[in-house]
Structure formats: C-alpha cells, structure tokens
C-alpha cells in the first residue's frame, strides 16, 4: 500500500518504538530484579487459567460492580474495544508493507466483517472514554482521583479513534475501489469529508492521517510504560504470579539464625513480586474505598501506600541500580510509609479482596511491622506488655496460665492435662474463650451444644497455649513461631486429628498457617460444626426468637476463609428469627477494628472503627447483633456502650443463639 | 564504666503458687520463671548508662538453680555483655548466706556500679543488695528512681515517706532499683540471637550453712466471698452498718 519512502518511514517508526519500548521494559525489569527472590513458579497451568479467566472475561474489572459502584463496566467496554484495535494495528502495519493485502488475503467476507467490527469497537471505545471522563470529572466516586495522566490518556484514546475513522474516510475517497464495505463509520466520515472540497488532496490526507494515526499508536505504546497505565502491561504478569498460598496467609521467616535483617525497611527488601505489585496498580482506589482505617479517618490508605512506594521506586531507581556495595539505601519505613500507616492496619484484607489486579497490601504492611518489631523493637508501647504476657503466661491478657481451664470446672469436660483419654474432636478454646469473662460464656455454650449432640470432645486444659496469631500479625514472627512450634508439639503428643476453634483468629492460624511448620490436623470453626449438627439432626432447636438480628462477618472467618453462609444458615434455622443484613457484608464486610493485633493497641487516630461499624449496625434497628468472633463481640459491646445502645441491643455469639434454643 | 547487675530468677507474678518440698519451698512444676521485675529495671539502667557513655561492660551475676541461666540470657538479649552463674541447686532462702556468696564472687570483679533490684518478688525480703554492699564495704543507696553518673560520682534520687531524696555517692557504689527508674526494653531479635553466643561462666555458689531456714509455708486464708448488700439508696444504711460493725473500716 505504501510507496517505498513510506515503507522506510514506517520501518523507522517501528525501530524507534521497539528501541524505546525495550529500553524502558529492560529498566523496569532490572528494578524488579533488585527485589528479593521469591518462588512463584508453581502451578503454571492454574496460574495461566486464572490470568486468562480474569482478563478475557474482565472478571478483574467487574468484581466490584455493585449498586453503588459501576466500576469496571466501562473498563470492560474499553478493554474489549481497544483490544480489537490493538489486533487491527498488526493488520494495518502488514498492510503498509504488502500491496493488496486486503481484500485478497482473507477474502472479502472476512474483510468486511473485520472492518465492521473494528468500527463498532471504535464506537464502543469512544462511548467508554466519554463515560470514563464523566466519572472522573463530573460524577466522581471518591476513590477516583482525577489526574493529568488519566486526562491525557483519555484524550489521546479519543483522538485516536476519531483519527482512525478519518483515515478510513479519506481512504474511501482516495482509493478507486472501496477497500471494504464493512467500515460503516468510515463510510459516514467519507460522506462528511467529501463535501469539504478536499478532493485534490485526498491521497495525501489519507497517508497523512494514516501515519499520524500510527505515530500516535506507537507513541502510546511507549507512553504506557512511563505512565500509570503501566498496569495495561504489568497487571497480566501480576495476575499470573498471584499468591497461590492459602488465602491471607503470611510467609514465614525461615532463617532466624543466619539472616542479617528481618522484614522490610528498604524498597529492595521487598521481593520482586511485591515490586511487580507496584507496577500493576491501576490507581482505581477500590482498596482505599473499602479500608476501615481510611474510612475512619486514619492516615492509612492502602492505595497511597502502593502508589507512594511505586513513585519512590522510580525516583530512586537509578541510584539503586548504580549503588555500590556497602552504600546505604534510603529507608522507606517511617518516610514513604509512615509508622502510623503501618500500625493502623487491621489486616482485614478488604483491600486485597477488592483489588482487581491481585496486589498484596497486607503482606507489605506486615513485613514492615516485622522490621519495626524484630529489628528496631519499635512498636506502640502497649504492645510490649502483650508480648510479655504471651511469653510468660501464653495469653495476651497475662492471666496466670494455671487458670486457663478454670472456666470448664464443673462442666464435665474431658481435660487432657488432668486426665489424658480418647476423643474425636479437640476443642481449642483459645485465650478469649479461656480468660475473657464474656467469651467464657461462649465456650460454655459450645460445650453445651457438643454435649447435647453427644460429641466425644476434650480440651487441653493447662496444656493449651496461645495460638500466637496476634504476635504474628503485629510482626513478632519470632515469638509467633516459637509458640506455633510449641503448640504443634503438644497437639502431636495428644495425637490430635481434628480441632474445633471458636475464635476465627485461632481457627485461621491453626488451619492455614500452622501447616507451614508441619501441623497435620483438620481444623473446623464452630459455625461449621453447629451447622452440620443442625443439618444432621444431631441437635434440634426449639422455641422462637421473634427478634431482628443483624450479622457481622468477621474478617478472619469471612474474607480469610470464605465462611459466609454457615452463620446465616444457623440464624435462619432458629424459628422466627429475622435476619436483616447490614449494607457492607461478606466480601466487603467492614472490619470491627480488632484484627491485625489492633485488639491490643490504642486507637489514637481518626474515629473508632468499632463505633463506625456499630453505627452501621444500628441503622438496621436490630434487637440483637450476631458475631462469631471474640474480638468482634468485644468491639461491638464497646461500640454499643459508646453509642448508649447497650441496654437496647445485645451482642451474642452464634453459639449462644444455638445454646439458648437447644431442645 | 564497668557495671555488675545481680539478677534473680523468680516465678512469674501471675503464677498460682503451689507449695512443694515438704511444705518449705515453692513447687516449680508448671511455673514460668522470669527475671525479677525490679532486677530488670537494674539491667535496663545499666544498659542505658552504657549506651549514654558509649563504653563500658555489663556483667550479669545470678545465684540460683541451673535454669537461672535462662533469665541471664534474657538480660544478655537486652544488652548485657557477659555473666557468671553461681549455681545453687539447694535454692538457699537465707539472704545473708546468699549475700556472702555474691560478695565472694564480686571480690574478684572490677566494677564502678553494682546494681540490684530493690527486692526479688519471690520471698520479697529486700535485703540482699544492701547486705552485699555492707560485706564489700561500699556505699549503697536503696530504692532509687533516678541514676546519673559523672566524674566518678553518682547522683541518685530515691523516694521516701518524707519526700524525694537526692543523694550523691562516690563510686564504686551499690544501688537497688525501684519501679519508676525506667521502662525496660523489649529486646531486638538480633540481640536475642547474639545473646545465645555471649559468654556465660558457671561456678558453684560458695554458700555457708544458712542461718535462716523456712520451717513451714502456708497459703493465706481463703478470702470470704463478697457480699451484695442491696441496690439503690435504700441499701446505704445497711452498707454503712456493715462497714462499721463487721468490717470495722469506718
Ligand atoms: S488490611 Fe484492611 S485495614 Fe489493612 S490496609 Fe487493607 S483494608 Fe486497610
Ligand atoms: S492497589 Fe489494587 S485496588 Fe488499590 S488502587 Fe491499586 S489496583 Fe486499585
């Protein structure tokens, strides 16, 4: 199609593009290589399936579509439309070099169909660009921050589409034979342009727009790698290398004896995958929109953590690459990410659940906690007592460990530390269940239920130790691992095969994190067990509960373990109980504020998270609030007191609802 | 500046104490032993002084059974440099015999500051520190809440019933630490790791025959259960009556 000069010019354009693109790509890759090693080469088939599944169906972008946020529909349209264009550029380039590539190569029918779809895609892209602009500049959801870059990209894409239609239009006018009958928008443009008296120049104009079009496309290809639209390329590998560890688990530190440092204090302490996360961020702000810290006016905004780390990496990139052995590297902890941000995180995982490109915020924040705790011994002052208590009495409250099983006195429970024996299920009571006066009632309720069902269960008694979840989440991995190993040893000695836990933190850590240290036992949560017992008819519920109940999803039960239905099904099986859901439930449930060791820290910044959540519950006018976690229970009781609603509204654990209605 | 800190292993303060050893000793089964909290203030103070001066050596001295070494390592993790364990499997309960054994070991050591906790929270005698100082013939200030050293002198503060006393002492001298002297640190992991490799010398404690022995231990009498007198204003007279006549508190 092109004259020889045109072909040379096109070659030159391609050459320049390939050069800059490769240069930038190499630079980006060399920055990734500054990160620590991390093996993400397992399960390649599964990874590929996941990535293609997310991208091709646009499930990634659509996952957050709700009544309130239409995030992603526009993205999906833009993605499909623009992808078609990307394919078409290959076609255009080939056409530039070969005479008569079309319509002869694939036949006329293909040609017509192709250009019809291309024009359609162009229209779709225009619509979605306008939609995107409206959402950024007119009806903006808070999470979308309009930026210059976003503006540039939208304008460029818009111009590109118009230019592409103009090129088609001029082509219709310039070529004696219409190149296709499918390009309906191109034809429309041809009609418009033909009336403008440009006949003498149509060929020049066709070539001119064609090249301009191509230059913009190539320029765009390079610009992507320099802009926030890096995600267009980086999100795919990031999805591919997503974590295949059990959901929400933290990685163990393996080499306490030989390591020179622990956790993350400098950007190169992150693994390459944690750095790739930074490239992949789309700046959609979904993470911050769902973050309890951000939503209660605290400085932590997970999106900002990611973006600030990314900017910092790019700012220091050259220095880092040319840094000599032994030269100091700037700290990110305390500057790029502040201590307040690091300590405000409840590890609720709301950010990770909604992130379209599988970014791992919690791992990063907890790695920085590890640095602060293990290397600097720098943490909120009140936490020191908690560590001490866990070390000396194996519970965060610091109650004497000899009193651990006192709650079970006179209940006729098998206590293994007093009399070893046979059992089917080990009831791991946990620290709250053993020492917290309120939650001891839940332990008793659970005993009542299991006794009614005739389950052969036992507790460890004074041989039970703290699970260590709080230590791990606060960053004291050393203390955590000491405790985990001790517990696993005890469980082995008692030949434990199946464990029941009421506290979702203990449940999660025993089930999903202890296997990192060789644990081999099944772990179930009490809501799962109770539901089973109801379904199998081993317990029957009597009486009625003509009350309005609202249910709070615990993060470590819900998002961490996808246990959403059992508590609901249990409540629904109590005659007349009326379950009214809160606005934020299940995957986007709003944390009570106590996860990630925040249970043990003062809440110094912003509003109290538990009060925000309690207010939300109160808008449903419940008589009762149901929880399935000791921390949530405490947080709600405190929240209700703060709102002067503790007389009117009570909080009960799911086990208590059931124990109160046993036949 | 050379500092020696004497520390003792004691049962954790939350321990439910059980009497063992034919009614004369604490039953150690299931007991978590910790560094006595007042001794920990002493260790922390030593480390702070060393950090401030930028030089010096901190030696830990502990008299007790074999597992005293566990708490010595904790002091190492906080920042002490080395130590000597005076092994005493008998768990001597006579403070003077203990003080003599410690003094004997200290005679061979060079130090400017000798620090103790004001008392060990097991038998709570609060005697050893002062006794050791007497045996070594050096000045001693007990229950200090502030310690500054400069030019071969120490300026310390202690609280007494009459108010705050400020005392200046020539070094070498001994001090016993009161709560409020400092907030002990939580050791860094690197320091915990390093602590495992620091030198720890073990010697038998040279204990004379104790002049004091515990003949019998007993639990305090069980506290009578609390009483709910009533609710609201109308129960006030009954409460006053009980406070006056039964509890004799008014
Ligand atoms: S885990 Fe929760 S609190 Fe922490 S950054 Fe994510 S959303 Fe915010
Ligand atoms: S981290 Fe994920 S959710 Fe947050 S702004 Fe980036 S892409 Fe969006």
Instruction: Supply the number of helical segments of chain A.
Output: 27
For the record, the CATH architecture of the largest domain in chain B stands as 3-Layer(aba) Sandwich
Number of domains of chain B: 2
Termini Cα gap of chain B: 54 Å
Output the strand order for the largest sheet of chain B.
11-10-9-12-8-1-6-7-13
Q: Structural class from helices and strands of chain B?
A: alpha/beta
What helical percentage do the residues of chain A reach?
40-55%
Mind explaining what this structure looks like?
The complex is a heterodimer of chains A (663) and B (250). Chain A is built from 27 helices and nine strands. The longest helix of chain A has 30 residues, at 108-137. In chain A, α4 (73-97) packs across α5 (108-137), α5 (108-137) runs antiparallel to α6 and α6 (148-174) packs across α7 (184-194). Chain A folds into four domains: 4-16 and 51-226, no CATH class; 267-374, Fumarate Reductase Iron-sulfur Protein, Chain B, domain 2, CATH 1.10.1060; 381-534, no CATH class; 539-659, Rossmann fold (3-Layer(aba) Sandwich). A five-stranded parallel sheet of chain A has the order 1-3-2-4-5. A four-stranded parallel sheet of chain A has the order 7-6-8-9, with helices on both faces. Chain A is elongated and about 105 Å long. Chain A is mainly alpha-helical. With 250 residues, chain B is α/β, with parallel strands linked by helices. Chain B has two domains: 2-204, HUPs (Rossmann fold, 3-Layer(aba) Sandwich), CATH 3.40.50.620; 220-250, no CATH class. Chain B is 27% helix and 29% strand. In chain B, the strands form three sheets. A nine-stranded mixed sheet of chain B has the order 11-10-9-12-8-1-6-7-13, sandwiched between helices. In chain B, a hairpin with a 2-residue loop joins β10 and β11. Chain B is globular, with a radius of gyration of 21 Å. The interface between A and B is medium-sized, with 23 and 16 residues. The structure holds iron/sulfur cluster (2 copies). One iron/sulfur cluster (SF4) binds next to α12, α15 and α16 of chain A. The site of one iron/sulfur cluster has 15 residues of chain A, from α12, α15 and α16.
């Amino acid at each position: 199609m092109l004259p020889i000069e045109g072909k040379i010019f096109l070659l030159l354009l391609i050459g320049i593009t390939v050069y800059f693109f490769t240069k930038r790509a190499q630079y980006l890759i060399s920055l990734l290589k500054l990160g620590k090693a991390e093996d993400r080469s397992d399960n390649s088939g599964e990874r590929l399936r996941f990535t293609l599944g997310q991208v091709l169906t646009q499930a990634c972008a659509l996952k957050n579509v709700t009544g309130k946020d239409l995030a992603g529909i526009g993205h999906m349209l833009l993605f499909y439309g623009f992808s078609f264009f990307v394919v078409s550029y290959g076609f255009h380039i080939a056409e530039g070099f070969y005479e008569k590539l079309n319509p002869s190569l694939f036949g006329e029918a293909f040609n017509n169909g192709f250009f019809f779809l291309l024009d359609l895609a162009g229209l779709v892209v225009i619509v979605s660009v306008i939609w995107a602009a409206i959402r950024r500049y007119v009806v903006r959801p808070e999470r979308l921050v309009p930026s210059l870059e976003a503006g540039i990209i939208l304008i460029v894409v818009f111009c590109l589409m118009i230019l592409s239609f103009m090129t088609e239009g001029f082509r219709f006018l310039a070529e004696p034979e219409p190149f296709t009958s499918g390009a309906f928008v191109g034809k429309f443009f041809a009609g418009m342009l033909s009336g403008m008296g440009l006949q003498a120049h149509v060929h020049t104009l066709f070539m001119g727009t064609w090249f301009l079009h191509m230059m913009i496309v190539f320029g765009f290809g390079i610009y992507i790698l320099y802009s926030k639209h890096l995600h267009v390329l980086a999100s795919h590998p990031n999805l591919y290398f997503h974590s295949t560890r059990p959901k929400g688990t933290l990685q163990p530190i393996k080499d306490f004896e030989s390591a020179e440092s622990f956790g993350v204090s400098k950007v190169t302490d992150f693994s390459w995958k944690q750095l790739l996360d930074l490239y992949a961020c789309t700046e959609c702000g979904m993470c911050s929109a769902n973050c309890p810290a951000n939503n209660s006016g605290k400085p932590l905004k997970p999106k900002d953590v990611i973006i600030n780390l990314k900017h910092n990496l790019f700012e220091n990139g050259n220095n880092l690459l040319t840094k000599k052995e032994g030269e100091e590297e700037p700290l990110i902890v305390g500057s790029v990410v502040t201590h307040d941000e690091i300590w405000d995180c409840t590890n609720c995982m709301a950010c990770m659940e909604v992130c379209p490109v599988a970014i791992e915020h919690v791992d990063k924040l907890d790695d920085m906690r590890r640095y602060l705790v293990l290397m600097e011994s720098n943490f909120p002052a009140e936490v020191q007592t908690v560590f001490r208590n866990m070390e000396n009495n194996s519970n965060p409250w610091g109650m004497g460990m000899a009193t651990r099983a006192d709650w079970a006195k006179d209940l006729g429970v098998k206590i293994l530390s007093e009399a070893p024996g046979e059992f089917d299920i080990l009831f791991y009571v946990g620290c709250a269940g053993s020492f917290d006066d309120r939650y001891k009632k839940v332990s008793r309720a659970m005993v009542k239920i299991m006794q009614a069902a005739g389950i052969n269960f036992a507790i460890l008694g004074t041989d039970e130790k703290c699970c260590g979840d709080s230590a791990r989440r606060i960053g004291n991995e050393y203390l955590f691992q000491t405790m985990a190993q001790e517990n696993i040893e005890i469980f082995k000695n008692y030949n434990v095969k199946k464990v029941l836990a009421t506290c979702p933190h203990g449940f999660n850590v025993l089930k999903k994190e202890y296997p990192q240290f060789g644990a081999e036992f099944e772990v179930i949560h009490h809501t799962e067990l109770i539901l089973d017992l109801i379904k199998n008819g081993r317990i029957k519920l009597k009486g009625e509960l003509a009350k309005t109940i609202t249910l709070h999803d615990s993060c470590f039960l819900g998002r961490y373990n996808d246990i959403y239905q059992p508590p609901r099904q249990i409540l629904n099986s109590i005659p007349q109980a009326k379950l009214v859901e809160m606005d934020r439930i299940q995957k986007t449930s709003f944390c009570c504020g106590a996860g990630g060791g925040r249970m043990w820290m003062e809440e110094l910044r912003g509003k109290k998270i538990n009060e925000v959540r309690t207010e939300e519950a109160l808008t449903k006018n419940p008589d009762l609030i149901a929880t399935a976690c000791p921390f949530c229970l405490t947080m709600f009781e405190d929240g209700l007191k703060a709102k002067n609603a503790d007389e009117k509204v009570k909080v009960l654990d799911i086990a208590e609802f059931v124990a109160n209605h046993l036949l | 500046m050379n500092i020696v800190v004497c520390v003792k292993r004691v049962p954790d303060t939350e321990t439910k104490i059980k009497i063992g050893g034919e009614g004369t000793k604490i039953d150690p089964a299931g007991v978590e032993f910790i560094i006595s909290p007042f001794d920990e203030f002493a260790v922390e103070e030593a480390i702070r002084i060393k950090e401030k001066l930028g030089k010096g050596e901190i030696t830990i001295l502990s008299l007790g059974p074999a597992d005293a070494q566990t708490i010595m390592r904790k002091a190492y993790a906080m920042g002490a440099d080395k130590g000597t364990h005076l092994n005493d499997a008998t768990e001597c309960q006579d403070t003077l015999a203990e003080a003599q054994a410690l003094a004997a070991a200290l005679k061979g050591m060079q130090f400017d500051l000798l620090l103790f906790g004001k008392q060990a929270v097991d038998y709570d005698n609060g005697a050893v520190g002062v006794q050791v100082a007497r045996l070594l013939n050096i000045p001693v200030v007990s229950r200090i809440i502030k310690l500054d050293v400069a030019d071969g002198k120490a300026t310390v503060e202690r609280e007494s019933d009459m108010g705050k006393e400020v005392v200046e002492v020539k070094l070498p001298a001994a001090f016993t630490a009161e709560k409020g002297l400092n907030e002990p640190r939580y050791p860094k992991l690197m320091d915990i790791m390093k602590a495992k490799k620091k030198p720890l010398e073990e010697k038998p404690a040279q204990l004379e025959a104790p002049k004091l022995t515990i003949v019998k231990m007993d639990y305090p009498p069980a506290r009578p259960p609390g009483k709910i007198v009533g609710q609201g204003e109308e129960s006030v007279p009954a409460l006053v009556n009980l406070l006056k006549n039964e509890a004799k508190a008014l």
